[in-house]
Design brief:
Layout lengths: L8 E2 L17 E5 L2 H10 L2 E3 L5 E2 L5 E5 L6 E19 L2 E7 L8 E3 L5 E2 H6 L2 E2 L4 E3 L9 E2 L4 E11 L12 E4 L5 E4 L5 H10 L4 H6 L23 H4 L16 H7 L13 H4 L1 H4 L16 E4 L9 H7 L35 H4 L1 H7 L6 E3 L2
Parallel strand pairs: 1-16, 3-15, 8-17, 11-12
Antiparallel strand pairs: 2-5, 2-16, 4-11, 5-10, 6-7, 6-8, 6-9, 6-13, 13-14, 13-15
Helix pairs in contact: 1-6
The structure holds a DNA duplex (22 and 22 nucleotides).
Length: 377
DNA sequence: TCCTCTAACACTTTTGAATCGC
DNA sequence: AGCGATTCAAAAGTGTTAGAGG
């Protein structure tokens, strides 16, 4: 796949695996697919629509994995991490800080519908989180990921060895994230450049691109039944990225200038993130994400194949137990504690939020926090 | 007044059941 | 009867935009 990043980031060596990892070997490597598309959006300032009933991401999260144990079962999940502690507003064609972030909504985790599956399955082809949906409805009952509008997030992937979704809570997590997947959650697009880019790449938007005029007659639309039958697992489609995703973004996009730099950038360290994250109140105003300073070296990441078990994590899970005898019950709402990044302790002026991806200690720390998987579509 | 959110809209793509042919 | 390929209608998805609401 042409969009797989060629750059690599190697992290610390694996530690001794837990007992279950009897033939633990090497490192798990995660690669972001359609990375070029993500970069194109990121260079402008990615916006993701969130709606009451849930909206898919575009670009969607698609990854490939290697380094897993072929016959060990893994559960792979994704959640959304606050990128900083600010709320934003779109003013005069640029993003500005509009104050401190609001209290974080219930933290939810989306589990890949193939989970659990053996390592050979995950490594056979890329994984798509196409069907994951984002919502701003804090009372959402469908298991969609709940976000605040006008706040920034980035997806975080979790891999853990587990034979069932209900044993996940006892296993060590490994976390991955990709800086270029950071986005601002919005209820309506703010930046017209984002709109154009989405229309150019998202096939579902063709109706608006080619339809031309809008009829605003308020005729009633027939109510559509919920996708109950869609709940049947469609593995075939999960790993097929849409042809449009393969297309390169328009070279006329200013993003290209920064992208050309990517291969020559220095390895991403904690402080060399875009200036945006270091001082949002000032640097957000010009180019939304200052990508010409940006380094893409972490599109492919390696982390220790095993994160040390955190004894007190089980206490966290004990406080927020998952049902253990009913698959549907896994969709019950759970309200875990706020994400660590959402705490006041996190200050983007002091360190970039990408740190955790590159420092083992951070990855391990984050793995202490509970994950809840009750959403598969 | 400003900002954010919601819902209706037209159109495309995806999905899956039904049908057909071997 | 069983299987794979094809067809097609329904469902799901998209961004836009007027209007509501805080």
């Amino acid at each position: 796949m042409q969009h797989i990043s060629e750059s690599k980031l190697y992290l610390s060596m694996p530690r001794s695996p837990p007992a279950a990892d009897s033939y633990q070997q090497g490192c798990i490597r995660m690669t972001l697919e359609n990375a070029d598309l993500w970069k194109s959006f990121h260079s402008i300032g990615t916006e993701m629509i969130i709606t009451k009933h849930g909206r898919r991401m575009f670009p969607h999260c698609s990854i490939s994995l290697s380094g897993l144990q072929p016959f060990a079962n893994y559960v792979i999940m994704i959640d959304m991490v606050p990128a900083d502690s600010f709320k934003y507003k779109w003013k005069k064609e640029q993003w500005e800080v509009a104050g401190k972030s609001e209290p974080q909504p219930p933290c939810r985790t989306y589990m890949h519908p193939d989970s659990p599956a053996p390592g050979c399955h995950w490594m056979k082809q890329s994984l798509s989180f196409l069907k994951m949906k984002l919502t701003n409805n804090t009372l959402d009952q469908h298991g969609h990921i709940i976000l605040h509008s006008m706040h920034r997030y980035y997806p975080r992937f979790h891999i853990t060895q587990a034979d069932s979704p209900y044993t996940v809570r006892w296993g060590p997590f490994q976390n991955f994230s990709f800086p270029e997947t950071t986005f601002t959650a919005v209820t309506a697009y703010q930046n017209p450049k984002i709109t154009k880019l989405k229309i150019d790449h998202n096939p579902f938007a063709k109706g608006f691109r080619e339809g031309g005029t809008h009829s605003h007659s308020k005729r009633c639309r027939s109510n559509r039944s919920p996708p109950a039958k869609r709940a049947a697992l469609d593995r075939k489609s999960l790993c097929n990225s849409h042809p449009d995703l393969q297309r390169m973004p328009s070279p006329s996009q200013p993003a290209e200038a920064g992208k050309d730099h990517a291969s020559t950038q220095q390895p991403l360290k904690g402080g060399n993130l875009s200036a945006v994250e270091q001082d949002p109140s000032e640097s957000l105003h010009a180019e939304p994400l200052e990508l010409h300073e940006y380094d893409y070296s972490c599109e492919e990441q390696m982390v220790p194949a095993s994160v040390p078990y955190q004894p007190y994590r089980s206490l966290e899970y004990a406080r927020y137990p998952l049902p253990s005898n009913d698959v549907d019950a896994a969709h019950n709402l759970v309200h875990p504690p706020p994400h660590p990044l959402a705490t006041a302790e996190h200050n983007p002026q002091q360190h970039g939020y990408y740190h955790h991806s590159h420092h083992h200690s951070h990855a391990a720390d984050w793995s202490q926090y509970p994950l809840f998987s009750y959403s598969c579509w």
